[in-house]
């Protein structure tokens, strides 16, 4: 068993970063637990209303000077930040594994994705340019300027502790805004480390602030008049009923990325070996704790007789279960492990609850993740193994609700049309995949499916940093998405000038 | 014996040790055998570059959306274990033979993982292939040095 060295050797005491100072919080402290080992690795404060207000005020005060800093000077800080992130790549990745539980390869992948956002945001001098047109009428010119707005609040989830803050913060800061970021109190270490590096990169005091905490901090952001917009990633009830609603009431811009229940359609001509490899990543990567994870696999019998469809279904399910049963589960710093634990015990209990519900509602439990065999002698408080249900129907709870764990539901559809109807019957619209060699089916799928992120022979349709992270229906609330050009539009206002000189 | 899963992370760690070990081996050769010191130092430097190439390619290419749960099924790392320590009493000819053996085994390893990593993003097997080519070139050079050493009086 090869365990990589842990970068955190003693329990860290986390502080807020406000106006360029690392400050002790007045709030209560909570432990951050490594879900694989059960050991406390940090203590994080649950900050007070005064502390979030102080951070917003500091950001508001820093804004005029930062906003008038030339864009090239602003992005030079991001170039330095990118280099620092690369220098600390391995340490940052191992911290993610320790605080979240994902495997080291998953963590490194996440680190890379996060850095890509810094790289794209560093192109702001070109990307933020407006436009100019002479002689809209003789002697009169018109032009467009993109201007920053002020202070933005960023609230990030537990499942990608490094990357998601970077979907937003680099673009906000590069365009001349200031931010106050609240990471998840379940795994806040990566965001803390990023801010340390941002400070080292020369981002001035007040521009990129960090406040740890929970509901009080979120409410403080939502209610503060100086916050112009909120970026949030989390569950649908909170995204829709708290964040989006309150932003609407207070006139704040909002990006609220929410939950999902994604479908993967396997067509009769799919390359099954490649499909299985993609599915393992999609269904079980990050232990299923991912808004782009596929949860329902639909074996489609387009053009097949009933008997042929049944045989194809059996073949796909048998292959899926065989490959899934070989996935090794354990501590993510163990290089022989392919899947880590869930983030904490409560999440494990929730997933177990769904597995029990599936059994209760009549689905057939073919691979039981409750009975997981771990690599290494770790406490199994947070581990659930790859799980597969067969004979799942759309009306079952496990087919409809987001489980956020390593549970795959096998279903059937007679045709592509039926498969698409199944996707549309679900209130979420985050992602969907089709596995096929047929361009016509793929185009039909891409054209019609009401989901924001589409995969064609791809299990996780994760957009690169220069594309928006899309989402529809109950998976997204807002107009513009994070990442790329849409983030730049979100963080700037368009000002149009018509000029004439006498 | 229980089969161990070989993840991409494990392969990269193995490569880091292999190239570090190779680099140290050739530095030792350069220290002991003056006649082809520059060649051995160049090989040592190249091993450091190989390590940088592979690790950088892996770190710049790996993405959580495409490689999770991947394993090098069926690969036996034990079979590819390579000796990189040069014993004190090893003579020049013997050291060259050992170096050639090292390159042959390294070549075999890189060919094996290139083949098995085809379903990963293409830049990764391509990096492995580049290292295979370099180490093969090294083997040929070492063979020519050995031929000269054997023919010399």
Notes on the protein architecture:
By secondary structure, chain A is an alpha/beta fold. The mean pLDDT of chain A is 97. Helices cover 38% and strands 23% of the residues of chain A. Chain A is built from 16 helices and 25 strands. The mean pLDDT of chain B is 89. In chain B, 68% of the residues lie in helices and 0% in strands. The radius of gyration of chain B is 17 Å and the shape is elongated. With 153 residues, chain B is mainly alpha-helical. The interface between A and B is medium-sized, with 34 and 23 residues.
- Any idea what the shape of chain A is? globular
Ranges of chain A where pLDDT stays below 50 over 5 or more residues in a row are none
Tell me the number of helical segments of chain B per DSSP (H or I, 4 or more residues long). Answer: 4
Main β-sheet, spatial strand arrangement of chain A: 16-18-19-14-13-21-22
Helix content of chain A: 25-40%
Overall pLDDT metric of chain B: 89
Mean pLDDT of chain A: 97
Strand content of chain B: under 5%
Q: Largest sheet of chain A, described in full?
A: 7 strands, mixed
Largest sheet data of chain B: none
SSE class of chain B = mainly alpha
The low-confidence parts of chain B are none
What's the total helix number of chain A?
Answer: 16
Cα-atom Rg of chain A, whole angstroms?
24 Å
**How far apart are the first and last residues' alpha carbons of chain B, in Å?**
50 Å
What is the β-strand count of chain A? 25
Helix content of chain B: 55-70%
Oligomeric state of the chains in view: heterodimer
* Approximate strand percentage of chain A: 15-25%
Shape of chain B: elongated
């Amino acid at each position: 068993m090869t365990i990589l060295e842990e970068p955190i050797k003693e329990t860290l005491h986390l502080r807020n970063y406000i106006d360029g100072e690392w400050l002790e919080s007045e709030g209560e402290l909570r432990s951050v637990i490594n879900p694989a080992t059960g050991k406390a690795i940090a203590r994080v404060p649950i900050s007070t209303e005064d502390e979030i207000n102080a951070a917003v005020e500091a950001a508001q005060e820093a804004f005029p000077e930062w906003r008038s800093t030339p864009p090239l000077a602003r992005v030079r800080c991001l170039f330095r930040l990118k280099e620092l992130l690369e220098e600390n790549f391995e340490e940052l990745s191992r911290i993610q594994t320790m605080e979240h539980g994902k495997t080291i390869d998953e963590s490194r992948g996440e680190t890379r994705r996060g850095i890509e956002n810094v790289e794209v945001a560093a192109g702001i001098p070109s990307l933020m340019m407006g436009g100019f047109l002479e002689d809209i009428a003789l002697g009169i010119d018109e032009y467009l300027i993109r201007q920053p707005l002020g202070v933005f609040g960023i609230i990030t989830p537990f499942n990608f502790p490094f990357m998601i803050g970077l979907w937003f913060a680099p673009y906000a800061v590069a365009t001349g805004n200031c931010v106050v970021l609240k990471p998840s109190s379940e795994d806040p270490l990566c965001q803390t480390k990023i801010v340390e590096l941002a400070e080292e990169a020369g981002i001035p005091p007040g521009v990129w602030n960090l406040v740890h905490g929970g509901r009080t901090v979120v409410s403080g952001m939502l209610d503060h008049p100086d916050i112009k917009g909120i970026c949030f990633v989390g569950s649908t009830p909170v995204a829709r009923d708290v964040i989006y609603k309150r932003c609407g009431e207070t006139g704040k811009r909002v990006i609220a990325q929410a939950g999902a229940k994604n479908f993967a359609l396997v067509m009769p001509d799919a390359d099954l070996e490649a499909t299985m490899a993609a599915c393992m990543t999609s269904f079980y990567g990050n232990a299923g704790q991912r808004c782009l994870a596929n949860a329902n696999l639909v074996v489609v019998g387009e053009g097949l007789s009933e008997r042929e469809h049944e045989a194809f279904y059996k073949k796909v399910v048998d292959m899926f279960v065989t490959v899934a049963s070989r996935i090794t589960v354990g501590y993510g710093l163990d290089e022989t492990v392919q899947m880590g634990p869930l983030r904490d015990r409560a999440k494990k209990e929730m997933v177990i609850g769904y597995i029990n519900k599936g059994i209760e509602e009549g689905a057939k439990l073919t691979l039981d993740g409750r009975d997981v065999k771990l690599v290494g002698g770790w406490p199994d408080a947070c581990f659930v193994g790859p799980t597969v249900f067969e004979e799942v129907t759309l009306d079952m709870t496990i087919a409809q609700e987001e489980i956020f764990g390593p549970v795959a539901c096998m279903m059937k559809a007679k045709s592509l049309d039926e498969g698409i109807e199944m996707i549309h019957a679900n209130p979420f619209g985050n992602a969907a995949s089709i596995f096929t060699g047929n361009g016509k089916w793929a185009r039909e799928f891409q054209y019609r499916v009401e989901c924001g992120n589409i995969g064609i022979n791809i299990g996780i349709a994760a957009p690169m940093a220069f594309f928006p992270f899309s989402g529809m229906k109950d998976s997204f609330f807002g107009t513009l998405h994070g990442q790329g050009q849409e983030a730049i539009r979100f963080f700037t206002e368009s000002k149009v000038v018509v000029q004439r000189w006498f | 014996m229980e089969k161990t899963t070989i993840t991409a992370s494990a392969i990269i760690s193995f490569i880091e040790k292999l190239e570090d070990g190779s680099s140290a081996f050739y530095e030792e050769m350069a220290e002991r055998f003056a006649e082809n010191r520059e060649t051995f130092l160049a090989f040592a430097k190249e091993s450091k570059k190989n390590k940088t190439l592979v690790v950088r390619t892996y770190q710049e290419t790996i993405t959580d959306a495409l490689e999770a749960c991947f394993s090098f099924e069926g690969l036996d790392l034990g079979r590819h274990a390579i000796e990189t320590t040069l014993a004190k009493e090893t003579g020049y000819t013997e050291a060259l033979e050992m170096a050639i053996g090292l390159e042959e085994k390294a070549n075999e390893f890189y060919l094996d993982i290139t083949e098995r990593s085809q379903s990963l993003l293409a830049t990764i097997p391509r990096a492995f292939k580049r290292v295979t080519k370099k180490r093969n070139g090294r083997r040929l050079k070492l063979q020519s040095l050995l031929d000269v050493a054997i023919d010399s009086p």
